[in-house]
Prior knowledge:
With about 325 residues, the chain is an alpha/beta fold. It has helices spanning about 15-20, 150-165, 170-180, 185-200, 205-215, 220-235, 235-250, 255-265, 270-285, 295-305, 305-320, 325-335; strands at about 40, 50-60, 65-75, 80-85, 90-95, 100-105, 110-120, 125-130. The model is unreliable at about 1-45 and about 135-145 (pLDDT under 50).
Amino acid sequence: MASRxxxxxxxxxxxxxxxxxxxxxxxxRTPTNSQGGTMSTNAGMGGSTRGSLMVMVRDPSGGPxxxxxxxxxxxxxxxxxxxxxxVGRAEFGNLNPGDxxxxxxxxxYETAEQLVNVNAAxxxxxxxxxxxxxxxxxxxxxxxxxxxLAPKIQKLAAKALEAVRAGKPEDARQPIEEAYRLAxxxxxxxxxxxxxxxxTNDWPGAELHWQTAIGMVAKYxxxxxxxxxxxxxxxxxADAVPYINRxxxxxxxxxRPQAEMxxxxxxxxxxxxxxxxxxxALELGHAQAVSVEPLLARALVAQGxxxxxxxxxxNYLHDRPTDSDAQKMLDSLRAQ
Length: 336
């Protein structure tokens, strides 16, 4: 249902627990760095050990690219930070050690993506961009880069996100309203405002801001997926599919849109297609996408493929042995 096209900036799972991964914690989003070059993020989840990442952006000859835009995503595909790579270098500090995805956009080059592991000693990643083929558009492949936020708005957005992630939407209201007053036309601010409103159960307001965000950046994956989830929440899977297809087209290498599509198709009883998209999510996301496996098992059961469903659940429970619902499903299948 999607083609392998250009890659993209930014950024759910499958089933309620699966899709949200979980939405109440919502990963590590830190708005963009307007100063370029170096960025300190609030990527910590507690603990005192932090890592740093230096991204070296090179042209095909090995020389530094004068100006590139670097996006750092956590292993949920969510934005950690952005920085301009001036004279081929961008730095991110105050990072939790672990796996991240680096995406690089520069005019005249294809968008590049690379997985990196950040450790406490510091990590250096070198990314070589490929020039756009002759006859294609002159700009960078993929969607346009997210507009950079001013430092004051970055701080307001980070404060609002922290409150939302902590399950305290009342504390998010003032900073997000101030950020929106200062930058009503910024897609990330609108996305974040929609996220805040969804936590207050103002779903029409949330949808309005998410629609605004994708009206500004058509390939903005996160609001596309939240809109699709809103449709599924209303038991409208057919209405969710166009948003998911857009997310898949925007980022064909991302596992979350594939997992969301599996959920939408399962809800429409299109079990064969649901299995295909769930398998694709696992192929792309590996351990990050393990939460799709209970849905895959249910779709396999609906296909009549009980043996593979049992294998899938066994693998899932090996990683998540405390999931009682999955254990009950496995016990039920074994008893048949």
